[in-house]
Amino acid sequence: MQTFKKTTVAAAIVLSMSAFAAQADETATSIPTNPTLAEFQKGFSGQTFTDGAFTIANSAAVDPGAQYVNNTRTAAPDDGYVYGGVFYTYSKDNEFVLTFDEAVFSGNKVINTGNGGMSAGGAAFLKGTSSTDSHTFVDTLFVNNQAIAQNDKVMAGGGALYLDATKNTGIDRASTATIVTTHDMTYVGNAVTSNDNGRWYELWGSLGQSGGGFAYLDRKSELTFDVQGGTLTIGAAGAADASVDSIQSSIVDTNGDASSIVKTGEGALVINSDFSQFYGKLDVRAGSVTIARDAKIWNGWTVSDGELHLADVELGQIQTGSFGTFVQAGGDSKEIAFEVKSGSVGKLTITGGGVTADSITISGSGVADFKDKGTLAESGYGIDISGGSLTTGTLTLGKGGHVAISGTGLVSIGTLATTEADNGAFLMSGGTLDLTAEQVFGLNEETKKLNTTMKDVFNVTGGTLDFSDESFEAAWLDAVTDENNFVIVAGTVLDENGSALDTVTTDNLKENVVYGSATLETKPVDGTVTIGVNNSGVQNIASDEAVSSIVINENFTLVGNGTALVTNTAEDGATIKVADKKTLTLGSASSTGGTLSGTIAADKATVYVAGGNFEITDEVAAGTLTVETGAALAAETIGAKTGTVRGALTATTLGGSGTFTVKENGIVEANAIKAAVALESGSTLVIGKMIQEEVEAPETASTLARVTPRKTEFVDVPQISDVVSIEGTEHDVVVTTNRNGEALLKAAAGSKYDADKHLGLYVDSTIHVDATSGVLNIGADDSHNSSTGKIAIGANGVVVINVSGLNGEAAFDAQNGVVLNKDATVILSDMLTTGNYLLSTSGFEMQGDNLSTTNGWLTGSVSTVEGKGGNWFVAEFNRNFADEDVSAIVEQFVQPGSESARVMAQFGNVNGPFVGEDGKLTAEGEELIYEYVSTPVVAGTYNVAYDAAEQVTGAIQRRNIEPSTGLGVWADVFYSANEAKNIYGGAGYDADIYGGVIGFDWTASCGAKLGAAVSVGTGDADSVGTLGKYSNDADFWGLTVYTGKDIGGLYFSADVSYISLDNDISGTYNMGTENVDSSVFTVGLRADMTVYESAGKGFKVVPHVGVRYSNIDVDDYRDIKADSMDVFETPIGVKFAGDFATASGWTVTPNFDFTIVPQLGDKDVNTLDGKVDILDSVYNSTLGVNASCGNFTFGLSYRYGFGNDDRSNNAFQARASYAF
After folding, report:
1. Which of 217, 412, 952, 957 could serve as a FRET partner for 274 with CA atoms 20 to 30 Å apart?
2. Nearest-angstrom CA–CA distance, 101 and 223
3. DSSP 518-548
């Protein structure tokens, strides 16, 4: 028995419906050998283990976070196959799938040391799956896994994954796997090692080679990359060995068994490794795919949405016919004939989204190793584009290949090479081609001017040739477009003198030519301009006279340049009238758009918005209206019999008798929807606020008798007066009352909304549905569409109701109420407090129990409220969300009127970082709440007040003890940097205090001093050691009176100060800034006594002692009561000083002071988190110097203070005084 290593779970398992499994048909003689389990796989608890194999009866999910590391599975010389370094599944008798969540597959290996068989799936071998589901790997990491074959006749495939169908008698079951990622991930180091020198093997109906460093896809295998967020990177960029982390597949005998790769999700897939030997199909449906190395398309590749980015790519084919005989993997080295019954051609089909490539070569070449085998198709390979875009630097069109542009497809080519191409191989019946005119028409060898006929390779019967950045002679355009049915968009048109035509007249318009940068100068007749040249166009229209009407009798284009489409309209605007069955095109692929003051009337015609942003001030009425991808149309009223929106459509009123179909990436915004709207996957509908319309007032007796004229009145117009519906089979559709609704919905729903599965409804203002004609159907059964006055939500509907945005109004106003499928999800977001929230004015039928709030502090249910109509959500406090102590604190802050409710909702956001997987508040969340209710403390509000007062009173004391006579004025400026990192019990603050004091005093002949001073300053404080970050920006001012007198050798000084502080307190987590006032009232008394003075040398020793009382008062922070402090301190110290006289008449006095400041009063304050220390005793050492000369005295000093709790204070003072 083999031993396997495990970390989180036992790492080696065999998953099988029997004790063995075969790559081949049931009748095959070779049976793959897989060791029995070393121990039961803990992750699949509840499953059975019999006969040495892991037997699956039903699908199973592995415990999250399983790690499979450094497991090795080997096959001895006679064993044949070795599959799956960690596990091997074989879906034969039963269908099943496995799900892995945040697993790790690292360093696992399969090693075949024998002379036959295979070595496949270094991490896992997936053979057959459920017909309705797939194996799923969610945020799972694959690194450094290997498949190794040591013999030159043994194939190795799939360093990490190997997929193959189950094809037994009566069974034909595909193998499917889905890799789901929600954040950035990188797969690297997965590799295949083989010594067979590129040998081909017959694989029981397919032909393959060793390879597929990351994944090998054999018969009928499908690997889906659902990259929901971030980027999934496969392979290291620029790695020397491209085979590491490569993706490879087999050549199948019937194209119906070809493997496929599907890309879904809005994230990015980057493949840095080799992709050239992937012979299957690629389907890009969303997000982006980047294939960094040169690739070859052997089969059908399709892009319907999203982006595909390629380097150099070649479109080839797989031949049909006999390829010869090959060693059969696992078949005792016997050789088996292999024949491709139906080959495949490389075809790139684009119906939406965008494709970019450095270069594209359409060659139709076959598999190089079999160039003399089989039969090559002579045609069919090429590019078909009917929607979306293709951009490439170079396109080489070879013999038998084709490019076909139709519909709305846009193709941009830098260089086109067609030397070997067939005549007519470049087909165009619609869409737009962006290519230089020279490459389309060629140059005359003699004149070196453009030919007037296209090169033979082109077969253009319709569509638009975009030459908008080129210049053309008018005569050439005449010759080219004569009797042709395509349109040329010309950048600049030159007259016979070679001058650019900045303006043209109606007589100069040319059929099938759009003057992309010219203005149509018109002369209206009675205010009307008539245009009758088919497929013509200009940039905009101008006139010296006011234009009230433009009549368009043929197809016409207004390109626009970002300004007015008609530069001189009548006072009421201009009406563009389009003749029946004709088309008005607005913009082009490169247009910036334009504005029209007026109306577009095309009731039986077509309005086609090709590109650019267009704004019509009044109405657009069309028979058919199309807004292309990247284009935008806005008007007061928009109506159509048929509307298709791939870009953006904005209207106050959306009307018409038909249906507006909103395609993928299309956005419709309207306030009043009076037309049917059908939303397809990937689209958005924004419902604006309800508007009013002016109507005639009801008849009265006087109006019926025509005694008084009938009056008008304004009435509310329901936002939905027709059927707005989404089929339940669609996904990633958002209906919202907010332009940012999609992002807001995803943020509120979190993991409950999956764009690949769900439909979203975001509501932050009332949605009104007309009782007689309106329906809003979000994925519900079609039967609801005929039941008016109703809102129906299907099983895959996710509804987010922002209750704060509703401001007490109902989310839904529909006469027949709201009906939700039992599997629908309703999430109430931005709910801050307990109370009653109106959901619907007329019923809210919730069949399931999938209703929740984003605020973990609140819970409740839907019910009626006595005395009020409608259905309400009654919100109550959720005491089970956090522990008892925290809940007791928070409950008061989620009551109506609480100023702290929004902060509590943020900490309790179930999608936020402070709610654990168990749905409860985390320890970090609890800590943040304790910090928040102590905000005045942790923001340093008390300490800034104390520190500012301490600096002011220090300045007063310095002046008060300074010898003086008569009248004196003085000033003292200070700066201090104070910190106490642990004063708050594991947390603290640091603060910078800047300020100054200016005062005056009088010293009487008896030695008594009396003075007054005013102080101003500012303080900045930040929390230290807290989980959140809190700050205080404070400004302060103060008033002080002081006195002093020597009595019997003791100099007594006293002061009284009042200091007022204006604090701006802020914090992280969107707490915002709150203004809080605080104040300090302080009274101090001090006695200084000279105990030693040297005779004639001026050296003194002066002990001092004092007492100070301070009251620190802080206003309440929001609805959090702030405590006040009564501080008593008794500073005691000693000062050493000496006087030195200079020859120039100055007296210099250096001094040193050491003072201890014990705290005897309040040192802490009460908070909801209990008592928190604010102050402690401090030890201050001050070094200073004074200098005086005549009536002037100057001084400088530095003080360092230290104490417990990592206290460190640094203060600098400068002062000056003058005695009169």
Report:
1. 412
2. 17
3. -EEEE--BTTEEEE--TTEEESEEEESS-B-
CA distance 648 to 630: 8
**Whats the size of the chain, residue-wise?**
1220
Asked whether the beta carbons of 575 and 599 are under 8 A apart, the reply is: yes
* DSSP 8-state assignment for residue 1: -
What is the DSSP track for 761-806? EEESSPEEE-TTT-EEEES--GGGGGS-SEEEE-TTEEEEEEHHHH
Which long-range contacts (C-beta less than 8 Å, at least 24 apart) are formed by 693-696?
693/717
What single-letter DSSP state applies at residue 1161? S
CA 4 from centroid of its chain's CA atoms: 41
pLDDT digits (tens, 9 = 90+) for 430-460: 999 999 999 999 999 898 999 999 999 999 9
Longest dimension (CA), the chain: 127
Residue type for position 236: A
- 571-596 per-residue burial string, b: 16 or more CB within 10 A, e: under 16: eebbbbbbbeebbbbbbbbbbebbbb
Q: CA-to-CA distance for 810 and 840, rounded, in angstroms?
A: 5
Which residues, in sequence order, are CB contacts of 407 under 8 Å at separation 6+? 386, 387, 430, 431
Residue with tokens 């031993």: 3
Q: CA–CA separation, 793 vs 818, rounded Å?
A: 8
Structure tokens belonging to residue 366: 């076959």
CA distance 609 to 538: 15
CA distances from 418 to 35, 402, 468, 481, 819 (A): 58, 10, 23, 23, 60
Compute the chain's Rg from CA coordinates: 41
At which residue do the structure tokens 């020597």 appear? 1046
Structure tokens at 78: 């006679």
Contact 658/604 with Cβ under 8 angstroms? no
User: Token match 């039903």: residue?
Assistant: 58
Nearest Cα to 875, choosing from 901, 852, 903, 893?
A: 852
Are β-strands 1132-1137 and 1140-1141 bridged in parallel, bridged antiparallel, or unpaired?
unpaired
Tokens representing 465 are: 């040739």
Beta sheet of 503-504, edge-to-edge order: 503-504, 519-522, 540-543
pTM of this prediction?
0.74
The count of other CB atoms within 10 Å of the CB of residue 964 is 20
Answer for the pair 115, 121: CB distance below 8 angstroms, yes or no: no
Structure tokens at 406: 């139709």
Which residue ranges of the chain lie beneath pLDDT 70? 1-63, 76-80, 93, 169, 330-333, 699-710, 1070, 1096-1097
Q: Specify whether the CB–CB gap between 902 and 1067 falls below 8 A.
A: no
1205-1217 as b/e: b if 16+ CB within 10 A: bebebebebebeb
pLDDT digits (tens, 9 = 90+) for 588-613: 878 899 999 999 999 999 999 999 99
CA-to-CA distance for 16 and 125, rounded, in angstroms? Answer: 11
- Three state DSSP letters for 81-124: CEECCCEEEECCCCCCCEEEECCEEECCEEEECCCCCEEECCCE
Q: Are strands 631-645 and 593-596 parallel, antiparallel or unpaired?
A: unpaired
- pLDDT of the residue at 17: 28
Q: Kindly report, residue by residue over 764-814, the tens digit of the pLDDT.
A: 999 999 999 999 999 988 777 778 999 999 999 999 999 999 999 999 999
Q: Which pLDDT score, from 0 to 100, does residue 37 have?
A: 36
Residues 360, 366, 367, 371, CA torsion sign: negative
Exposure class string for 499-519: b at 16+ Cβ within 10 A, else e: eebeebebebbbbbbbbbbbb
497 Cβ contact list (under 8 Å, min separation 6): none
Round to whole Å and give the CA distance between 361 and 623.
Answer: 42
Q: Is 295 helix (H, G, I), strand (E, B) or coil?
A: strand
Q: Six-digit token pair at 336?
A: 């088996």
